[in-house]
Write a structure and sequence with these properties.
Distance between the termini: 14 Å
CATH architecture of the largest domain: Beta Barrel
Mean pLDDT: 94
CATH class of the largest domain: Mainly Beta
Helix content: 10-25%
Number of domains: 2
Structural class: alpha+beta
Number of strands: 17
CATH topology of the largest domain: OB fold (Dihydrolipoamide Acetyltransferase, E2P)
Radius of gyration: 19 Å
Amino acid sequence: MSATSAMSMLLIRGTFRASGFQPDGDTIPFTPDNVADWKLVPGSNRVLPKADGHASIRLEAIDALETHYGSEDSPSGVQHQPQGLAHQARDELLTRLGFTNIVREGESETVKSTTPDTVPGFILTRGADIFGRCVALVGRKPPVFNGYEIDVDETQLKKTLNYQLIELGLAYPTYYTGFPNHLRDSLTTAAQVARNARKGVWENDATLEGAKVTGLSSLTADNGAVILPKLFRRLKDYLDLNLTDPSLAGFPAYLAGAQDDKYYIQGNGKQFTGMHHIVEISNGQTVKMTHQSEEITFDEK
């Protein structure tokens, strides 16, 4: 049910790249120095690298605002959360990894060029997700060794971009079963400090206070509601089915019947299925969650 108190993670050295891709605040391509290292990644899901050896890294335990979510052929197409904060998280990730002169292709999310083209770094991983992305802690200065499993302590965690984005208030803590307790506690403390200081997303976060949704623009405009990205994704998918009727009256039923989110709530040993247990709708248009994200632990699939 709960995260473990200690767990080793596989360390892989390699390079990060942004040009030609659409990185965001919690996802970036990575190529190991030895592409065969992908086969060492533990867990039941396999990393699915591309022909050139790179695979997407999904930053462990954090969720940044969406810069592009959905497909072009969905009713509302590709959508995003308020772009100021979404782009700030992405740019902070790229800058802290060592990229400069980041140029995008027009108004798209694709990066045209960076200086340098690639930067060295490392990942600490305990597995991949169901999409073939490697879920990992991300760091800039790789140690001399590679391909070993190491116990990650709080000092090591604080050197990662995962921790730093939480500390800056540019990402929400989002935990899954198996993530070590001591690392979770450290990230939670950093998130609470950022929230109290109203940094980044926390200045206008409406996840618990409630966001009035009269259509997708309520969530995507520059002055749109700032909410937990997982909740945004569920709302976008729901509204795609109801574009002519933006009422959220049917949203809880949608969460109960159309989603397979399994999770635990802090202090409760029961496993819940469906986010309708932690989402409330009032007046047919206002949505809120009943727990902070760090109080929820989602089951890994």
